[in-house]
Amino acid sequence: MITRLSQLFLRTLRDDPADAEVPSHKLLVRAGYVRRIAPGVYSWLPLGLRVLREVERVVREEMNAIGAQEILLPALLPREPYESTKRWTEYGDALFRLKDRKGADYLLGPTHEELFALMVKGEYNSYKDLPVMLYQIQTKYRDEERPRAGILRGREFVMKDSYSFDLDDDGLEKSYHAHREAYQRIFARLSVKYVIVAATSGAMGGSASEEFLAESPVGEDTYVRCVESGYAANVEAVVTPAPAPLPVDGLPDAVVHDTPDTPTIATLVEWANGALGREVIAADTLKNILVKLRYPDGKTELLGIGVPGDREIDEKRLGASVEPAEFELITEADFAANPFLAKGYVGPKALLDNGIRYLVDPRVVTGTSWITGADAPGKHVVGLVAGRDFTPDGTIEAAEVRDGDPSPDGAGPLVAARGIEIGHIFQLGYKYTDTFNVDVLGENGKPVRLIQGSYGVGVSRLVAVIAEQQHDEKGLRWPAEVAPFDVHVVIANKDDAARAGAESLAAELDAAGLSVVLDDRKASPGVKFKDSELIGVPLVVVVGRGWAEGNAEIRDRFTGESVEVPGSEVVARVQALRAS
Ligand code: ATP
Ligand code: MG
Fold this sequence. Notes:
It is found in: Cytoplasm. Homodimer. It catalyses: tRNA(Pro) + L-proline + ATP = L-prolyl-tRNA(Pro) + AMP + diphosphate. The chain is an alpha+beta fold. It has three domains: 17-238 and 416-468, BirA Bifunctional Protein, domain 2 (2-Layer Sandwich); 255-395, YbaK protein (Alpha-Beta Complex), CATH 3.90.960; 485-579, Anticodon-binding domain (Rossmann fold, 3-Layer(aba) Sandwich). The strands form seven sheets. Strands 4, 8, 9, 10, 11, 12, 13, 22 and 25 form a nine-stranded mixed sheet that branches. A six-stranded mixed sheet has the order 1-27-26-28-29-30, sandwiched between helices. The chain starts with a strand and ends with a helix. 40% of the residues are buried. Residues 202-206 have low confidence and may be disordered. Bound molecules: adenosine-5'-triphosphate (ATP) and magnesium ion.
C-alpha cells in the first residue's frame, strides 16, 4: 500500500518546540513523529509509530533467536508482590501508586522482576523445565524526577524486559551471555554506536552487570574509557588502582602544628607552602569527610571517609559504594552530639579512637605520609603516616575519577565520555526467587532454588537515540532497518505527465516489496524537499523537470548524493542502493 502525504495524519512544524533542548527531541516533534501530552508522556503519530514498530521488530527477532519466549504482563499491578520485595517503598517517588475503587493499592509497573519470578513459580515445578528465558515488550511507568528530551527519558516508555531462570550459576552465565550477544546484534542492526561498560565494580563477583551506552554528548551517563585497551566502565564501577605500599622506616615523626584559619584544603596548602619550607600540593593533604549512612532497616551510622585533598567526593560513586545504605552529609546537630569532631580539622585519630568507621581512598596505602586534621580547632598534623600512625578500617571508592587517571587494567590513561543507557544486563541472583521461594524439584528429588537474570532494552528511547546519532542540520536520517518508509517519492512538477509518472513509479516500487510514501500534495517543490529532508526516509525519488526526458532523480538522504536515472531503471537502482 502506498502512503500518500496528501492524506497522512501529519503536520510538520517550521519551528523547534519551545521546551526542546536536544536535537532528537526538536526533530521528532518538528517532523511530526511524536506529540507531548504531559511531562514525559508522549503520543506516537503515524511516522513515529512506524519507527517504534521497526525497533520492536528488530528486538523481537533477536530475542526470539536466542530462544526467549514472548509473553505480555499487565502494567497495572497489585501491591503485594512489590510489598514482599520491599520495592513498594524502596522504589521511592519514582513509583506510580494508585488505588482502586475498593481502596486496594496498585502500581504501574516500573519493571517486572517480581511478576516474572511468580509467573515461573506458578507454571514450572521440575528441573526438566529449565532453563527458561521470557520477555515482553511493554509500557513501563516511572515518575522520573526529571523527564527529559521527549521520549529519551519518559515517565511512560516502552521497554523490552526479559528474565532468565536457571538451575545454577553456569546456567545463568550462559543466559547472560546469550543476552549480551543478542544485544550486540540488535544495536548493530540499528546502527547505534555504543560501548559496553561494567556497571558495578564486580564486588559481587565477575561481571555481574553491564550497561550498553549509546555514545552521545547529550547523554546523562558519564563513563570512562581507556583508548589503549578498550576498557570502559561506568564511573561508579571504576576500581582505583592502589599503589604498592611504601616502607615506613625512617619516615619523620608526625608533628602537630598551629594552623589558624585553615579550615579548607586551599587555606591549608597555602599555610603549608609558607610554613614547611617545601612545595606542598593539595594531593599531599588528606581530607576527611563525614557522612551519615541510613540502612534499609532504619539504622544509622556515622562514617568517616579520607580522600587525597585534591579530589572531590563523587556522590554517585559514594552512593554505589555504600549501597544498600543511603548517605547524607552530617549536620550541625551531629557535630554537637559528637564533640570530638572538630569541624574543619577532623583527623583520622579522633574517628578511630571514638569508634567511627574510617574508610580511605585506595591511594592511601601504608607508608604514605599526609598533612591532615589534628582534631582541634586551628590544628593540623604533618607527616601522619598510614599504617604507622593510623590504620583505617578499609578502603572505599568515593573519590572522583578524572581524565588522565590510570586505567584499572594498567593499559593507559582514562578519558571521560558521555552516553545514553540503551540496555542493561544483570545477573540478578536469588534476590527475587528467595523472596518468593521459586523452587523446582531437582534431579536428586530435592528442591532447587532458581537463579534469575534480568535484562532491559529501552525500545522507545532507542527511537530518540537513533535520531540523536543520525540526524544532520536538515533533519532526521533513518538507517534503512528502522526507517518509517523505504522510499519517499516526490512529485516536483505540476504537469500531469510528471504526476502520472510519479504515481506509476510509486506503484512499481510498492510492487517490488518496498514501503513507499508519495508526496502528492499541492505544495511547492521547495516545501516538499524540505519536508523530505526533515522526515528522513533514506532514499528520495524526485519526479520533476527531468521527467520530460523520462528521467527521475534518486537522492540518498544519508550521503547527500543524487543520481539522474531513466524512469525504467528507478526500481533497480533503488534496490541496489538499499543493498549497498
Ligand atoms: P536510567 O539510568 O537511564 O534511568 P535505568 O538504570 O533506570 O536507566 P533500567 O531500569 O535498567 O534503566 O531499564 C532498562 C532500560 O530501559 C534502560 O537501559 C533504558 O534504556 C530504558 N529506560 C529506563 N528508564 C527510562 C525512561 N525513563 N525513559 C525511557 N527509557 C528508559
Ligand atoms: Mg532510571
